[in-house]
């Protein structure tokens, strides 16, 4: 159980760096799951209760805790963030031929369910100040779509690397045309925008508890929102669209998307430490900035005045001309030291799968992909481990 290390009690404890005397450095992952140590006890209780299936009480308790954390009245826990997005598209009535609009700088799962439902994705560029969906561009594109007589079925802003999208601005743009908003907050848990949790203000909010997310149950997700009937419908669809009857009764078909008791128990063990996890990731980011920001040609994802990012991943941009090396050279140098880093998401409009999809802009996002690198950011990362990453980057700059 050597990997079951409790979270650093105070973020400040990871500072300052101490040079490690360890001869053989441990491999350093981008964002490994972090365990509280209480998971084992929660799981033991879960198994002792005799429940494993989603029908047990623990997923309901996890939903209640999540509702409180995200300031959303209703929640249904499911078995992945992608499943939550799929249910969201279903509830908003996505049909073959509909358009679904999202930020191009995202993970494929944002739109995959909609594409599989026969919708056409349209990719919009991001705002350079937040790296999330550009509300001004959205407003302009919606007006143009209304003139064409082809408004999107839904707009899907994405919280990027723990930076929440600007929901009041997006909501205002969509509200003008009655277009609903589904927030892909899969990696937004713990982030704030305009003083509210990520996704707040959207019609539906999808989150993820995948292995590398800030709270990780191994796999899992949830769909939240202000509408009680919608979330009740999502719950029914997630459990094979069973009708209330002693026998199996179905008026339609659904999915097997409900979250198991086992995963919910892990989530319940971790959720209370969300704020501490955010503080730890922000402290890691602060250290990167302190150690690296003076290097010419290296900048970080900005944090707009209205946002509190979680810094789920610290995302840097490298200008090869000024830094003296490009993002790929940096990634390889880190890899040679056993340190995992990853290019910023390749925008979806550049993916072969979406070659023919319509788009609006994309040059800003393409630039972030070209120059952007995500650095190791796990909330359990030691100062020694972070020092290794910093030293490698500095050496490359000098070299
Ligand atoms: C992780 C992630 C997803 C998918 O969530 P899963 O739980 O892995 O299905 C979707 N969108 C974004 C932006 C993500 O980061």
Give the termini distance in whole angstroms: 40 Å
Overall tally of structural domains: 2
> Tell me, what's the shape?
globular
Give the second-level CATH assignment, the architecture of the largest domain: 3-Layer(aba) Sandwich
Going by CATH, the homologous superfamily of the largest domain would be Type I PLP-dependent aspartate aminotransferase-like (Major domain)
Question: CATH fold name of the largest domain, please?
Answer: Aspartate Aminotransferase, domain 2
Radius of gyration: 21 Å
Secondary structure class reads alpha/beta
> Roughly what fraction of the amino acids lie in strands?
5-15%
Low-confidence stretches: 1-18
Mean pLDDT: 92
Strand order of the largest sheet: 1-9-8-5
**What is the CATH level 1 assignment of the largest domain?**
Alpha Beta
Tally of helical segments? 13
The distinct bound ligands, ions and cofactors come out as:
pyridoxal-5'-phosphate
- Biggest sheet layout: 4 strands, mixed
């Amino acid at each position: 159980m050597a990997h079951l290390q409790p979270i650093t009690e105070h973020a400040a404890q990871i500072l300052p760096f101490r040079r490690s005397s360890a001869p053989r450095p441990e491999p350093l992952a981008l964002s490994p799951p972090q365990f509280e140590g209480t998971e084992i006890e929660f799981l033991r209780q879960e198994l002792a209760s005799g429940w494993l299936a989603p029908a047990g009480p623990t997923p309901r308790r996890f939903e209640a805790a999540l509702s409180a954390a995200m300031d959303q009245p209703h929640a249904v826990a499911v078995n992945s963030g992608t499943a939550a997005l799929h249910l969201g598209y279903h509830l908003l009535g996505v049909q073959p031929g509909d358009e679904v609009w999202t930020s191009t700088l995202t993970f494929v799962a944002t739109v995959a369910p909609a594409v599989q439902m026969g919708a056409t994705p349209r990719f919009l560029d991001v705002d350079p100040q937040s790296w999330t969906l550009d509300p001004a561009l959205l407003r302009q594109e919606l007006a143009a779509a209304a003139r064409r007589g082809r408004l999107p079925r839904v707009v899907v802003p994405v919280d990027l690397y723990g930076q929440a999208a600007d929901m009041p601005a997006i909501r205002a743009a969509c509200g003008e045309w009655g277009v609903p908003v589904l927030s892909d907050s899969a990696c937004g848990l713990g982030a704030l925008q305009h003083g509210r949790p990520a996704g707040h203000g959207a019609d539906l909010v999808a989150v993820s508890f995948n292995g590398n997310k800030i709270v990780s149950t191994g796999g899992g997700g949830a769909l939240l929102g202000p509408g009680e009937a919608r979330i009740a419908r999502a719950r029914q669809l997630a459990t094979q669209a069973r009708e209330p009857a002693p026998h199996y009764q179905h008026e339609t078909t659904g999915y097997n998307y409900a979250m198991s008791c086992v995963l919910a128990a892990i989530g319940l063990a971790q959720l209370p430490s969300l704020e501490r996890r955010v503080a730890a990731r922000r402290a890691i980011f602060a250290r990167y900035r302190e150690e690296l920001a003076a290097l010419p040609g290296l900048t970080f994802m900005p944090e707009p005045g209205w946002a509190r990012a979680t810094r789920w991943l610290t995302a840097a941009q490298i200008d090869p001309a000024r830094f003296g090396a490009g993002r790929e050279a940096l990634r390889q140098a880190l890899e040679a030291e056993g340190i995992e880093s990853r290019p910023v998401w390749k925008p979806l409009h550049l993916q072969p799968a979406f070659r023919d999809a319509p788009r609006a802009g994309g040059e800003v996002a393409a630039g972030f992909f070209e120059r952007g690198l995500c650095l190791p950011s796990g909330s359990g990362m030691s100062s020694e481990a972070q020092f290794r990453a910093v030293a490698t980057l500095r050496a490359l700059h000098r070299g």
